[in-house]
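Appendix B. Extra example for self-study. Work through it before the problem class; the solution is given directly after the inputs so you can check yourself.
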Amino acid sequence: MTGDKIKKTIKTIRIDVDKCNGCRACEMICSAFHATPKYSSNNPARSRIRIIREPLRDLYVPVYAGEYTVAECAGRDKYTIDGKEYDECSFCRASCPSRDEFKEPDSGLPLKCDMCEGEEEPLCVKWCMHDALILEEREEEVEELEEQEDLEIGLGSLADKYGLQTIMDALSRMSKKD
Amino acid sequence: MRYAETGFNLEVDLTRGNIEKVASDPRDTELYLGGLGTNAKILWDRVPPEVDAFSPENLLIFGAGLLCGTPAVGCNRTIVSTISPQTKLLAFSMMGGFFAPELKYAGFDKVILRGKSSNLVYLWINNDTVEIRDASHLKGKGSLETAEAIKKELKQPKAQVAAIGMAGENRVLYASIEQGRSSASRGGIGAVMGDKGVKAIVVRGTKDINIAQPLEYMELCNEVMEYIQFRNENPIPGVMPILAGLGSPQEMKVHDEKWHTENFMWGNSRTRRRDFWNDEVAREWMETLDQSRTRLISCYNCPMTCGATISMPGLPTYMMKCFTKLTYTMGAFSNLDFGLRIAQKATEYGLDGFSAPQVMAFALELLENGILTDKDFPDMPTDNEGRFFYLLDKIVRREGIGDILANGTYWAAREIGNGAQDYAHNNIKKIEQLPLKLSMLNPIYFLMYCTGEKINITQIEGQFPQAPYPKKEHREKFCEDWIQVPDEKFKQYFLDWEPRGENSMPFYPTVDMCCDIVDWQEKMHYIDDALGQCSGLSAFPLKPPYHIHNYPKFISAGAGIDMDEDKLSKAAKRYRTLVRAINIRRGMRRKDEKPPEDHWKKRFPELEKELLDAYYKFKGWNNEGIPTKESLYDLGLDYVSKDFVERGILTDCEDSPDKDMPDEDVLAEKEKK
Ligand code: SF4
Ligand code: SF4
Ligand code: SF4
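Solution. Structure tokens for the complete assembly:
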């Protein structure tokens, strides 16, 4: 690690919950974009954005998938804003064992928002016609850090779930098949 | 692999508690598309005319449209089809919201209910795990209350719930099925669900829906999105606000109700109040709506926000859209505050917002005119609003007079007798219509009222302007970017249409033009209902984003079915004819195809006859409205024609109208014996 300063574009999505109408277009398009091949299928359960939507309590929270965590938090947050009580963990981005948010439905692998790498604009932002999601970009100088690869995070989470030995056995079995 | 659809239906036998996942035939998708189309095929095959609405053999089908669950904007309709207890014909109400996509993600295109459960149950579909669960603890609960309770007990906040309220449980013939911000209301399908002992269907799905040609499909979806944006920024000039934009009529957004309140009828659809709207009313109603409307909300994958959450002070929150905003208010000659309050109860009870207020107004009219008496309304409050709340409760509980009123104005009037029939004046095919009474016959609307088998004008109108534009230059302007017309001739029809003079109603558009226009309008609704597309972005508004030119591409790229305009038109005609065939087999004939007697003041019997004759012919139906053998053959519906001949509906040698068909009074007599 060098500790050098580098320029980085910070992308922020401004979320205005008052403008969200609960349509879940953002979930839909995110899941379609991340299908392989691109757009070949769609399934909001695979989306990297989730709408916490409870119309009768007027709760609408778009939440983005953030880091994967091995263990759930010891303490949890419960907010009341403008007299509305939000459920535990409503604003948390973590793919965490305490809930089924931000996990691939069949494998359980963690999902994380990648800001739609390769697209001009995050697609959830583009599809949100009510401007509940707005992209802002700015330049910042940051310390260079080695980023952990997606693959490594995925493998790590599998190891947490099944144990490292099981994963290694499975891998060696799979490689023999090929 | 199946594209856009899942290829599986869920068959549930409630009598035996049997659940089966059954693969559907991909050839049926090609012929009937999906949604209403394939629903109609199943109902034709499996529900013969001897089966009545409340027989265990009647099916209740929840069909997700072919493209539901794909990225097509606003494609989220569940088409609920069954035999209606009110009309005794096919009912095919649709609901928006979130149910259809969720069902597709769970891996099913349809849920098909048959039989009857002996105790109240709900169906829980969690991907491939499907259970019938006890619902006795939910008996009598409101539709939204039920949805909340079930999501809680299953710990499934993301499940979608379609539920009935007390009206459905007690088989009120105009009971609805409610699903959050949406409902399937017309034709009493909630009563069929109640009769089957099903309180709710609950679904959660986390599987994929596949697209045949992903990049092409996304391109089409993006075009639709851009066009919606364009139309939102460029409303159509020269028409009233609800016709200028897209979406279902934007009743939750508008404050100015001058047009509806002064043009639609009040009470039991009789009284027009031309000077109703004034500053005082405007201020009061605006306050009511502003204070109660928490948020405008959309259906799945749609930006149009046609619905709203409504929290009236002191009452539980509920959701609403469209014209229910005004039906109770106007039925009771009251104000918006009352309308939104009683609608909260009616939504929990699960009632059709068109029929219910008219039935109540009808009952009070009978009381005023001495056909019913005070004895029929024990302990009824004396104030106007109180009476409506009283009647609402009597009806959904089927108590006293409510038991008769729960059958709708047509059947109630027959049972009450003593001249009551004259008060059930606003029905077509036994079902209450929008409260509209007009002056000059409109030939296009005449045909739509007569022949629409959804039996609701909003479900057949659209596309073509409702009235001529006074100035030629405005008409020319309108035609400039009118890309949705199936043929250039429609532009000419419109260009030549004048408010006065030779080219004005009722004789212009000419009979032949009317046939073309009505056929186009109806076709678009039928396509929507097979694909699961909300007509608010398609068949209903002027210049919609979906139309006959891009629909075939959506089907080809999405479902992988080779499609073009002709093939699509023919498919739509095929299942449209099948819908008619189901109704013909149930006794519907020309005599049933008429608007309410008093819908227009100025009528033209000869022209009307000519219109109907010509339209029947245009559609390939004989003079009784029965599809001819030739047209059935042409559509590949030989099995229908065979059945018609066997039943004596058509004769073997020619397509003569069956003069001997007993009419329903005779049938009713027989039933009594
Ligand atoms: S697309 Fe926008 S309005 Fe719709 S759910 Fe997502 S954030 Fe809300
Ligand atoms: S930015 Fe892209 S990856 Fe992230 S949630 Fe939005 S659509 Fe998904
Ligand atoms: S246009 Fe309105 S009713 Fe139609 S799908 Fe969109 S939000 Fe729902």
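Self-check: Chain B touches chain A at residues 69-71, 73, 98, 101, 105, 144, 148, 157, 180-181, 205-211, 214-215, 217-218, 225, 228-229, 232, 294-303, 305, 309, 316-319 (CB under 8 Å). If your reasoning did not lead you there, revisit section 3.
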